[in-house]
Design a protein that fits this description.
253 residues; single chain; 9 helices
């Protein structure tokens, strides 16, 4: 995930947007030129640059929102703050996102997608399913460790922002647990580990990672999150019957 990004506070309603043109677009806002062509019309050479410009602006809004949410938190951020950071009008924000909530939800979804893609790429390079599950754990911790602001937005700010955000966090939980359970299912099929309820194991793995990351995020002097990996790895592998010891020099806890 890129380090820059890669309940209601009254922002759910569009207010104070200034005069609007006949088509409902804020008067004077250059988002008018970004409207998609009529579905029945033939594409023009001009359409592609317009669409590209619109997509670039949307990404700029999301990057700007990430920075503002990181500094001010979800509740204390207003759409005006995001517009200022993105150097666009408030109407320009609403052209792409109807509410502040929709911006934050999109940030959560896109961040979760990049997180899972990174984990899956690392696991795919491993020779067997148990090594894939191990790699998923290592990369998950490493990703959070390298992007503490992102982790705080995804796991802490979202927790207090409302039910819609909690649902997105739960979806990430389920995606990660499902991935781990799939690796463990194949490990059982290949005789690498004994038969076990892989979903319960995967839920326990994610729960342990989540608690360790949350403690790290809520501590003023957290230390290195990666230091938790050797101990977590031993706990997890022993839990599926793999005899493994802590590396020499590792201090538990």
């Amino acid at each position: 995930m890129a380090p820059d990004r890669n309940e209601a506070t009254g922002e759910s309603e569009r207010t104070d947007q200034g005069p609007r043109a006949d088509d409902g677009t804020p008067a004077g806002d250059d988002t008018v030129a970004e409207r998609a062509p009529d579905p029945g019309s033939e594409p023009t050479a001009h359409a592609q640059p317009i669409q590209e410009r619109s997509q670039r602006r949307r990404e700029r809004i999301l990057d700007s929102a990430f920075h503002v949410f990181s500094r001010r938190g979800y509740h204390d951020t207003a759409v005006d703050d995001i517009a200022r950071q993105a150097e666009t009008s408030k109407g320009g924000i609403y052209f792409h996102f109807p509410t502040k909530e929709s911006i934050f939800l999109e940030l959560m979804r896109s961040t979760a997608d990049r997180f899972m893609a990174r984990v899956e790429r690392a696991a795919a390079a491993q020779p067997d399913p148990l090594a894939q599950a191990d790699a998923a754990l290592r990369v998950a911790l490493g990703t959070f460790a390298g992007h503490r602001t992102m982790a705080r937005l995804l796991l802490v700010d979202a927790l207090g922002a409302g039910r819609a955000f909690q649902v997105e966090t739960q979806r990430l939980h389920e995606r990660f647990a499902r991935l781990i359970a799939g690796y463990l299912d194949r490990a059982v099929e290949q005789g690498i580990i004994e038969p076990v309820d892989t979903w319960i194991v995967a839920e326990a793995w994610f729960g342990a990672v989540h608690e360790v990351v949350m403690r790290w995020l809520m501590t003023d002097d957290p230390g290195a999150l990666e230091d938790a990996y050797p101990t977590l790895r031993v706990i997890f592998l022993r839990g599926v019957g793999i005899p493994v010891a802590l590396p020499a020099g590792t201090v538990p806890g």
